Model the fold of this input.
Amino acid sequence: MFLTKLNLIHFRNYKKLDIKLSPNINIFVGDNAQGKTNILESIYILAVTKSHRLGSEEHLIQFKEELAKIKGTVKKDVISHNLEVDISALNKKVFLNQTEIRKISDYITNLNVILFCPDDLEMIKGSPANRRNVFNVEISQFSKEYIQCYNEYNKLLKTRNEYLKQLQSISKDDMYFEILTSSLVDRAVFIYQARNDFLNYINQNIGDIFYHITMKKGLRVEYQPNIPLNSFDAQEIKKVLTKKLQDNYQREVLQGTTLYGPHRDDFAFFLDNNDLKIFGSQGQSRLAVITFKLSEIALFQEKTKTTPILLLDDIFSEIDRKKKNRLLRYIQNGIQTIITTTDLKDINARIIKDAKIFDVAGGIVTERVKSDE
Ligand SMILES: Nc1ncnc2c1ncn2[C@@H]1O[C@H](COP(=O)(O)OP(=O)(O)O)[C@@H](O)[C@H]1O
Ligand SMILES: [Mg+2]
Done:
């Protein structure tokens, strides 16, 4: 799948933008605060209808304007589709081939993207909550069942926690508590399994890709659920979690909260059995997260039968010349990629020659004309 055209009107610092993208590598070069990330953000919104950045949607509309429009043409096999997202202070509308689509879930399958942004480094250095969020964002992109189950789990968890607090002063309705707990455990089984499958999939690729780019072996991610599991077999998970909850009932009432379950999950990156959270340099961590994202491509291809578009924001800082070029060579294999950077220093002339380069300055984008053409 390729995004062939992008058109912005009154989006962030773009009054009007009209560009044609290459199906291979596209690089947006410019100083800070010129509008590079805004471009990636617009493509991300065109795909999933929401920004990856915090802040209210009104900020997406250019100052003093009423309506921002993001339009793009997506080519899948031989068919092209026109996508459009209109954002006003009051609402947001999405269109497929000029027809408004009312159900967001019907719209978001048209363009698949994988985004790396500098905040994704939180995947390593941030809190376990950051990492659980990664599970939810990534897995829900190809499993509707997962989001549904996760939402049900959260509702049950909230109800159970409220009941545990009440149990500090009222007597227990055994039947009610039993149903609440077993319903929670049922959802937990599905979530543990989905997360384990996801990380297993990542692990099939992450080591090789990381080696390809860094010449270092042994990168892997490790799932760390907060219950001691011998396997991810449904019966095993059910048994272990139920027992943990039973054994800790008094503590749970005392603390008024559910102490075990996937809401306390974590995972970690290991390089040669060293936890990157503790031992990883900035550059190593950045490459580990980028490699994690690259590992998802194969998963996407299997689950959705299409190759997503890669959006890489500011990926080159703290990465040395060799690794930059190896990374670029890796993604040249038929994956449309849109990269932002402050400079093209260190990048091989060959790669630059094969890529489309766009200069970004103050909300104006100029495609660089190659001197030898
Ligand atoms: N709603 C908006 N209207 C106009 N300009 C905006 C709006 N939102 C952000 N900007 C401008 O966009 C610029 C930042 O763009 P960004 O893409 O994040 O820069 P970078 O090139 O560093 O990635 C800033 O100059 C900011 O003032
Ligand atoms: Mg930026």
Summary: Residues 241 and 247 are 10 Å apart (CA to CA). The chain is about 45% helix and 25% strand. The first helix runs from residue 36 to 48.
